[in-house]
Design goal:
The radius of gyration is 25 Å and the shape is globular. Helix 4 runs antiparallel to helix 5 and helix 4 packs antiparallel against helix 6. Among the domains are: 117 residues, no CATH class; 153 residues, no CATH class. A hairpin with a 2-residue loop joins strand 4 and strand 5. It is mainly alpha-helical. The protein starts with a helix and ends with a strand.
């Protein structure tokens, strides 16, 4: 067996072992922590649709993630409900199955990082350290342990990247075919992964073509494979509920329906800094940037992430100008910077603080780490390189311990949320109560899942989400948003429903305004607050495990005194 064959065999076997080990660790952590909503309840919100595919009653899939719901629905069938009845027993358990599959895909993702790192460093030890840093990075860890929908697509993106770098090393067109196919699957699982991935990988092939003109064949094969695999899946559209034209996958209709989530205002730049500042350490998904900069612990976490980002990205910026650095490492540097820029700039028009929005562009820092290790190995003596690797490992272990400590502190949150949701249903019966929520609380999603069993029309008819005035109406003014919500509340009062608020009237003015700056400007949020806060009298109050609530009454109605507890 020649060196090339033995190297590849070792690369494959070790990557598989790493993937299996990390998947097992992630699954064990999911069960132990019992919080599949770390950072977000977005996955929980989608769980009824996954459950429908699990039960064979799935509706046509979203064109922005065409195969995600069917894929996770079918995979959920492989896990019996009884296997995930840990913690508080629940009639609804598919969100736990989703998290477990995320853990499995997460293990594969980090196995692919090891595979890629080993190709460049040719050191199993260095590759394990880099893989560990990736696997325990805040936003990677949180998405591998929660029920969010980004990890399977992210795993295919990493498979596409690793395959393309195998082509760089071997010049075998088979790897180009695999790369294009994997990127197509990533796109079909989560559309947001397509742009940064396609442009970063395409840039690499373009640079190779400039140096070697005959590489145009690889570039053409990559493009044809990418589009061809997507089209092949679309032609089997009945499997996923409907046929979707190829242009609609490249530019899904979902983009025109996301309302106020899309759009730029000055606060988005700050949120981008907060998102980057939580990728490596902390893993917080913060809806109020004032909290980030006023909390000493979060500020330290962001500082650690910023330092990690600056150092690793600097490695990518330095590599192209160092004559000692191999050509394939320089291509990796171009890939890293293209991925970072193409990913971060569009994020400014979305949710740049969101873990799922940052996980792909911030992979550039992991690529930068591979570059740094390669560059240091070239410039430093072996003993010094080993010391630097030991320092990196120590930093990675410390960061992993901190991230896990933060997540461990939320242990049992799913079980508690189920109990709290049942408590709220008794205290505020849906039959005669309309709840006014902010819209970003985890409790709202739990109410949708547990109380309303995923019945969206019933849930929306018995709740008002204040943030939806902006998320569902792009560009709306604060004054117009206030009128919209006031009409909703007045209609409920006119029907004789009891209206109970858990936001705005239970918050200070600054808290409420700051909480909306992810979807509108501070000025708009202030006008919104002004248009609603003094419009109603406040009646009975409750203090519950989900926080304070207050009854809203028509202006001029006598306000009862006192505060009730949930037990009353």
């Amino acid at each position: 067996m020649n060196f090339s064959t033995s190297f590849q065999a070792k690369q494959y076997y070790l990557a598989i072992l790493v993937a299996i080990y990390l998947a097992a660790v992630y699954v064990a952590l999911i069960v132990q922590i019992d919080n599949t909503n770390l950072g977000t309840t977005n996955g929980l919100w989608k769980s009824p649709n996954v459950a429908a595919w699990e039960n064979g009653t799935g509706t046509p899939a979203d064109d922005g993630e065409l195969i995600y719901l069917p894929t996770y629905g079918y995979l959920s069938r492989l896990i019996p409900d009884g296997w995930v009845q840990y913690g508080t027993h629940s009639a609804v358990v598919v969100f736990r199955k989703m998290a477990i599959w995320n853990g499995i895909f997460g293990g594969i993702a980090s196995g692919l990082v090891f595979f890629m790192a080993y190709r460049f460093t040719q050191s199993a030890i260095a590759s394990l350290v880099i893989c560990f840093v990736h696997a325990s990075a805040g936003f990677v860890l949180v998405n591998c342990l929660n029920s969010e929908d980004i990890i399977p697509g992210y795993t295919f993106f990493l498979a596409a990247s690793a395959s393309l770098f195998e082509y760089v090393a071997s010049r075998r067109l088979f790897w180009i075919f695999l790369s294009g196919s994997f990127l197509a699957m990533a796109t079909l699982l989560h559309w947001s992964l397509m742009g940064p991935g396609a442009l970063a990988l395409g840039l690499m092939l373009c640079l190779m073509t400039l140096k070697e003109p005959r590489q145009w064949r690889a570039l053409a094969l990559f493009a044809v494979t990418f589009l061809g695999v997507i089209q092949a899946v679309l032609l089997a559209g009945l499997v996923f509920g409907r046929y979707v034209p190829l242009p609609q996958i490249i530019y899904p209709g979902k983009l025109s329906a996301i309302g106020g989530w899309a759009g730029f205002h000055a606060e988005k730049v700050i949120y981008a800094a907060v998102g980057i500042g939580n990728y490596f350490s902390g893993a917080n998904n913060l809806g109020d940037y004032h909290v980030a900069f006023s909390n000493a612990t979060i500020l330290r976490e962001m500082l650690a992430s910023w330092i990690f980002g600056v150092v690793t990205l600097a490695g990518g910026a330095w590599a192209p100008f160092d004559q000692r650095v191999p050509a394939n490492v320089k291509l990796l540097a171009a890939f890293a910077w293209a991925l970072f820029l193409v990913g971060e700039i569009p994020d400014l028009y979305g949710q740049p603080q969101d873990p799922q929005m940052q996980i792909e562009p911030m992979f550039a820092t992991i690529a930068g780490l591979i570059i740094l290790v390669c560059c240091l190995a070239v410039r430093l003596r072996r003993q010094v390189s080993r010391v630097m690797l030991a320092v990196l490992l120590a930093a990675g272990v410390s960061n992993a311990a901190w991230n896990l400590h933060q997540m461990e502190a939320t242990r049992g949150s799913d079980s508690r949320a189920i109990a709290v949701t049942e408590q709220l249903a008794e205290l505020f019966p849906p039959a005669n109560t309309v709840m006014v929520w902010h819209g970003f609380e985890g409790e709202t999603t739990w109410q949708y899942i547990i109380t309303f069993r995923g019945d969206s029309p019933a849930f929306l008819s018995r709740s008002v989400h204040l943030a939806s005035a902006f998320t569902n109406h792009a560009g709306i003014s604060g004054e117009a948003a206030a009128v919209l919500m006031k009409n909703r509340i007045d209609q409920a009062l006119a029907r004789g429903d009891r209206v109970v608020a858990g936001a705005l009237w239970t918050q200070t003015r600054s808290e409420f305004i700051n909480s909306l700056t992810t979807v509108t400007s501070g000025e708009n949020a202030a006008a919104y607050d002004d248009g609603l806060r003094g419009v109603y009298d406040l009646g009975r109050r409750w203090q519950t495990d989900a926080g304070p609530f207050v009854e809203l009454l028509k202006k001029g109605t006598r306000t009862p005194a006192g505060v009730s507890s949930a037990a009353e």
